Structures are given as C-alpha cells and as structure tokens.
C-alpha cells in the first residue's frame, strides 16, 4: 500500500477518515471520498490483512465497527495531526473573535434571497455564520452549506449586519440586513 503525506477530499480539504468495508465475497476495501483512497483501489483478503497493511502505512483502524454494515473507521494519522494543528492555530487566532454573518456576493436590492429549489423568496438575505477578527473571517458551515460555500466563495465577501429572521432552504441563516460592508 502507498504511504501518503496527507489525504484530501474531492474539494481539496483535509480528509483523515475513511471507511473499511466488507464485501459479500469476504474481501475488504476502502470506501472514501478521496482520490488517494479511491473506492476499490485497495482490496484485502481479510480484515486482519487490511488492518496490518493500513497500520504499516500510517493509519489507525477502529477496534469496533462503526455502523450496522460492519464497517470500521480508518484514520490517516498524519492528515489528522495536520488538521488538528490547523484547527489549533485557527482557534488561537479567533479566540477573541466577534460572531456575525458573512455573504459572498452583494446583498440583493430587494432584501430577499431567491430560493431556487422551491421557487420562492426567502424571508431575508441568505448568509453564513462566521467569526471576525478585523477583516479576517472564519466561516461556519456544515456539510450541506460547505457545498454552497464552495460554489460562492470566489465572489466578493461582505460582512453583514442585521436581525436573523429565519432559516433558508439549505439550513443557512436568513437575515433582515441593516448594513453590509465589503471586506
């Protein structure tokens, strides 16, 4: 098995965890959202063989199954350490940050974002939760909002002030904007 300095997901983010899965024929394989561990790239004849080779290549394998299917969690230790170091550095930087909202792209003049999925207006403007230290920011996004964030993050960023008036179709905050400032 190859060894890796780090493992990334299809969006370029660090992805230390994958799943070790049994097949009906008794073999085991990695199920992963990464290119490095593409599904079916590595196959083992037994759980013991998989565990031994993965550990040798710098992974940890959970002692117990993680779901009803009998899968095991596989963690790439170097990637997990790199992710933890980045998080600690970010946490230090934002320790005294101010919470607020950020939007990528100017706020609609109408004061309402368009929910294209349901073909209606939102109650206000869709934003992301964020923390700010001066003009630097850290966006909070779950896996659903992470996809949206990756689609819009190349647009100009705006610090948005206002009252939260609801939740959008992607579970994002929706705000009645009182002020927005381009960052």
Give a brief rundown of this model.
With 183 residues, this protein is of the alpha+beta class. It has helices at residues 47-56, 77-93, 143-152, and strands spanning 17-22, 28-31, 43-44, 59-65, 72-76, 98-104, 114-115, 120-121, 125-126, 128-133, 136-140, 157-167, 173-182.
What does this structure look like?
By secondary structure, the chain is α+β, with helices and mostly antiparallel strands. The chain has two domains: 17-90, no CATH class; 94-182, no CATH class. Helix content is 20%, strand content 38%. The strands form three sheets. The chain has a six-stranded antiparallel beta sheet with strand order 9-13-12-6-10-11. A five-stranded antiparallel beta sheet has the order 3-2-1-5-4. A two-stranded antiparallel ribbon has the order 7-8. The N and C termini lie far apart (46 Å).
